[in-house]
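step: validate -> pass
step: tokenize input -> pass
step: predict -> running
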Amino acid sequence: MEELYQTVREQIKPVEAEIRGVIPPWLNGSLLRNGPAMYEVGPEAYKHWFDGLGMIQNFKVENGKVTYCSRYLRSQAFVRAEARRGIAYAEFGTPLPPDPCKNIFARFFSYFVPPERTDNCSINVVTMNGQTYASSDSPFLIGFDPSSLQALSEYNIRSDFPGPVRMFSMTPHPHEDEEGNVYNVAVSLKNGTRYNITQIPPRPTTPGDTAPHPLQGVNVLSTFTPKNRLCYYHSFAMTPNYFVFIENPFVVNVWALLTMKMRGRSFHECMKWDNKQPSRFYVIDRKTGKVVAQYKTENFFSFHHVNAFETETDIIMDVCCYPDARIVYQYYLHHLRSKGEHEVSKGFPDPALRRYRLPIPKTASSSSWQRLPSYSDGRDYKVLYYGVELPQINYRFANGKPYRFMYGVGPHQRGDFLNQLIKVDVLGKEAKIWHERHCFPSEPVFVPAPGAESEDEGVIISSVVGVRGKKSFLLVLDGRTFREIARATVPCPMAHSLHGMFRPRSPALLGQCRKAWAEI
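step: predict -> pass
step: emit ->
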């Protein structure tokens, strides 16, 4: 696995890929990917996969051809690291090394200054009001040109925006409704920990307009206090009438966070798994912003929600789950690099696609915690599939609605790292697989065909990194059959990315918004 997690040079000048097969003529646009790609700066090295400096990649698909380019995101974390030839900010699993340019007294007094937050936005690519941003689990957004990948602007929504809430962090997985409103969950720490659900309305633009602040016009729809301490969270769920937020017991010690610089700790070392606490679901009414129901269940850990929808009586929630937060340790680079392809996940639980059922309350009551109802086997969740992560759906067609198909990556066999693509039928509990030896696919992205009427009518695209002499490529699968229809092999090294999006050349490729709410 060492080959998969090496620093990769940026490829600023676009290079043409070699096509095998036929790319659908309607597939025109750019697959933008984001993820860590630089793991060493001078003599210093990052410790965790999530810590590496972020690189944006662009697969431009046009008239059956593909060009590829990549560029390191010019964040302050990158610029300062390059200038000092060393790590400039503490990251998730990497503490800030002592500054060799400071004498012993300057170093001592610097320990009493709270650490600056890193702006290494290396997790996802999001769009708001027509602008494209790199994002992470932080208060930072970095705007960039989706063609040249050059950074254009940077925003710290905690300090430079006079909004109603000073935000400590937000998720890199916002939701968007059919009117173009963008929703997110942000943490504020003033007067205690609060979770805030925010709404950014669409802003009409005309040619020549300067880019607005990404949070211009933000509304805070709901504010609620956690039952436990500040927890790690990465995503949330949205249905037509409700938001659902999960509070997992992977909690942050705020005092440890404030003193991490003095103690030489990373962010991860300021967190712990509290096995005595349950996992909690908060159900928030989208119209009133009130918490209308609270449920608790046996604790679990999750990064990613898949989808949620309503029936007459329940909110159905599908989540990729782990029994605890041990998975975070699997992603330390010393582990990833020292294990073979078929050994890296041994001793760690596979992610499971679970379905939870949350009764819709007849009257709002947020004062008491209720247990979730059980299924026939006595558990309060169903397992729809074992071994799937980085989930995606046909978002505009299916988000918040009854759906049938989800796409993800998973291990081909127990002990493997995420080395296969999966299409899961959540109704039939069946799956289709794409796998090729010594190939590591990224999160799959579904692109609907123009005028598509069925949920899986379109293609799946994924950037695939090859090891042991195999070249890397962009893979195109038929959405229905899950069979390969084309690949575009890239003549240069490529980084293993985390998340991204397809930015279509034509709005027609955004897909249909399904209005019907009947079960599929």
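step: describe -> The longest strand covers residues 29-38.
step: cleanup -> pass
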